[in-house]
Specification:
By secondary structure, the chain is an alpha/beta fold. The chain contains six helices and eleven strands.
Length: 231
């Protein structure tokens, strides 16, 4: 039996991978782990920590946040290595993620965490993007878009439920599951949750980020609609 910390983004793939992991008799999910910026929102998806806590509470698992110095994912390796050492001391045997094989990150994550005594699990790894979409649609998980790549989708695509119509309407060349960053989502209801997570969305706004890649620094533009707790 392996004790697992699941890396929770708050989106559809995380919800789907966690669902598969919770059904695995060979693991015990001890906690959710999310990287956040110093301002108090998750990296990439820009979900405020109080909503991440609401998701975790509805799922029934504690949430551990790991703060990155930024911008973007700068400092991820150093911050997560420090967190991994601490979690290993607390009895965590493995980290699990919601990546697909098209992301190509499995070997990289194994190279980072296995030397620290942490196994890496990827419950969705064998699925194609199309298969992942089909499994998501059959799962009953409900999610909406909160970030879209401005080069692929416009602000009208924010706050849209991830249903058959959304996936069918993606432009030609877009990955069906958004694995190339075309869109990110916020999961708020379905069998994984004990109760629906109540939220509202901010008005769409456009941001640009410089991100270091293997090809150098590139500038990306996104449309965001940040989810907020309904008060």
């Amino acid at each position: 039996m392996r004790t697992v910390a699941f890396h929770w983004s708050g989106g559809k793939d995380s919800a789907l991978a966690l669902t598969a992991l919770l059904a695995d008799d060979g693991v015990v999910v001890d906690r959710l782990v999310t990287t956040v910026h110093a301002g108090g929102a998750s990296t990439v998806h820009d979900i405020p920590v109080d909503l991440l806590q609401a998701q975790a509470g509805s799922i029934g698992l504690p949430l551990q946040t790991v703060t990155l110095p930024g911008p973007g994912l700068d400092g991820y390796v150093e911050a997560m290595d420090t967190a991994a050492v601490g979690m290993r001391r607390e009895g965590i045997d493995a980290f699990a993620f919601g990546d697909l094989s098209s992301s190509g990150v499995f070997d990289h994550k194994r190279a980072q965490f296995e030397p620290l005594g942490i196994e890496v699990l990827e419950p969705l790894w064998g699925l194609s993007s199309r298969e992942c979409v089909e499994r998501f649609l059959a799962s009953g998980i409900r999610a909406v878009t909160v970030v879209v790549d401005a080069a692929v989708l416009g602000p009208e695509s924010l706050g849209v439920p991830l249903d058959h119509g959304f996936f069918a309407g993606l432009p030609d060349g877009a990955d069906p599951c958004g694995e190339l960053g075309e869109f990110h989502s916020f999961a708020h209801d379905g069998p994984l949750f004990r109760a629906s997570v109540d939220f509202v969305l901010d008005a769409p706004h456009r941001v640009e980020q410089e991100i270091r890649t293997t090809d150098g620094v590139r500038t990306y533009a996104y449309w965001l609609s940040t989810p907020r707790s309904r008060r």
